[in-house]
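Reopening closed ticket. The problem is back. First fold of the pair:
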Amino acid sequence: MLDWLRRWRGHQARTEAPLPRGEASCPPVSAPQAAPAPVAPQAAEDAGCPGATGTFAPSTTRSWVVQGYRVEADLSRQALCLAAPAEVGAEDGEPRLFPTLRAAGLSSRMASAAVLAQKAKQLDDGLVAAVELAVQRGAGLLRGKAYLLETWLASAAHGSPAAPAALLLAAARLGGVVRDVPRPLAADVTRLIDAFLADELRSKPLGVYTWSEPLRRVFQQDRLLQAPLRDPGHVEALARILREEAAARTTYEGVLALASRLTGPPATPDLTPVLRSLDRGQVEVGPAHAIFPPSRAVETDLAMKLLGDAPIPDGFDLVGELAARIRDGSVDLRPTEASGWYDLQTWALEPLAAPERAPEAPRVSLDPRYRELLLALFKGALTLTRETHVKQLEIPLAGCAAPTSRRPSVVVDVLPELAAEPTVSYYLRRALGYRFVRRALEAAFGADALTRIERLTPDGPLERPLSEELALMEGLFFGAAAAVAADLGMSLDEVMDPAFRDACAALDVLPDQDGALGSGRGREHDAEAFRRWSALEDGDVGRDARVMVPVFHDLERRKTKAWVFLGWAARRVLVSFQRPPAVRVFAPDGREASPPEVDVRFGALAHDLAYPVMAEITVDRLLDRDELRALCDRHRTRSAILAALEGGTRTSAQRTGDARDEPLRRRA
């Protein structure tokens, strides 16, 4: 670690993942140009150009009719090029920021991967909010955390004085589980709550936990109980109560299992190792255990590996370091048996940081600017994903030929059609992630209970079962993968690399079986359903996604490193043929047409797409969604917003935060 710090101070910090050396960028893309007319198959092969031999495979063939002439294009050997031209007309040298995708008003024949990420964010938030309340109150097979607190408190009042009664009462008061506190413990409970609320890094509700008072209560209750217990007597007493109450033990283990499956494995030992030692007739207590420990994440693991307890260098960029290490292979995101949903969500983003390693890479050539857009999408999507899991995640302290001049009777324009950006692996992995989380929720609550839980929104619950919402999202992402793979001239099976197949095997999913993934109605159905899906008409896509989420705390500076999602920017992306498909044209009488009767031209398509604008900054104080959005609305550009955030989080937001937290202190 010290060697790494010395290298940091000797070189400029990396803020973006470097592009692989020796890779050629896309050739310049111009307006649609005429291309050589179709030639006989053998001649095409001799010229080193794509030719058509035999019958085209149905899965890689597109056909359409132009003035009575039937056109067939074999996509199996085509390759596309995506380029992002330099921006023109940006305000003050910076792109305009839009608070929502709907405000950007972009319409494109190709869906942006960012639009799908935004759609997923809304479902993910609503899912987590609904699950949090269900876990607190109890649902289906799971009796809930409120029941656990009541059980511990009842035992502490009847023969278990070693239990941390003040801590349990403080958590129960914050969570709304109990109102009255025994007089002998009132002072200790008040002291604990006051100290906790004074520490905003731990106590300030963020994300979906600002939607309602019950969610705010759950946030603060659980954050308090994430603190490590260092008194062995307290740990043993809590474990003994669980061992004596079978229903409580089952509930506790179920709550922990669900937290691990939803987010990731615990960063601190919980009470289960002590429980197992008691089962063996022994008492084995470690140096620290947490009642409901936070979950670890790849980004915080990397931060601790690079920094540990050493001073944090100026300009340290965690998300840039993470992207660089994903690209060079030193950070492996492949899921393991211990992985949670957040781990799968992060793994799904890998093709955005390292597109050259994606199975679809041989069919797609990306210019450097477009790679930068994918990297921006990686950073923005990771920020949104982390904010969904904000309560549970640990915050460590630390070309073609030139046209010819002829006037044919029939012109055939062949365009590089894409239903969505060609990040097939991202879509596939996202679809599998929804299957994963549905299985986890069914295991925790039962399949029947999941049909009675509804996704939450800031405006209340939606009248659709969460099980149905999850199936629709799995089908949407799987349909995107199937549609784009077909547009690239690939079989979807080609995109299923060994890591994806291993992840499917862990879920007992047979990916080669049509209907095993997605809606269950087959690949063609899901692909067509995705092509019909309209992002502009989807209410989830129009929601405001601007958020701030903490990553780690700098003890020396007493500041918090945070990721900030600032909004959306519009960028134009040009899609052209790096290697065109083989095309044959048949006249109305059935014979194969050739020049000058027909002229086949390979063109390019321009798409105006939205991409996220994200930053990694150091702040004195965290802002919740409302506070951040109000600040962003007062400033129009990324630099102005960041200047206000880094220089004024303490002064500009202090009064708002104090006013919001005061009722909590009065209740306590």
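Second fold of the pair, where the issue appears:
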Amino acid sequence: MRVAADDDSITATVVSVLLTLAFVGLSLLTLGVIYLSVQDFLQKREKEKFEKEEAERQKEEARKKRAKSRKKRGNY
């Protein structure tokens, strides 16, 4: 009878350890996914900001070119 009780105790311990490892593994996986999601969000936001600044810079350059060409036409 004592052997059966020891087997139950060992089985319960093994199951507890495996469940704990599964919980820790899934927690790490979840944190990894959250980290990747945040990094992706920040990267997209930075890219959009850069594209917006680049578009504004191109508009400003186009305005300067138009102003130069108008000055040249006015001098002739």
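Update: turned out to be a display glitch only; the data is intact. The radius of gyration is 33 Å. Helices lie at 2-75. Please close again.
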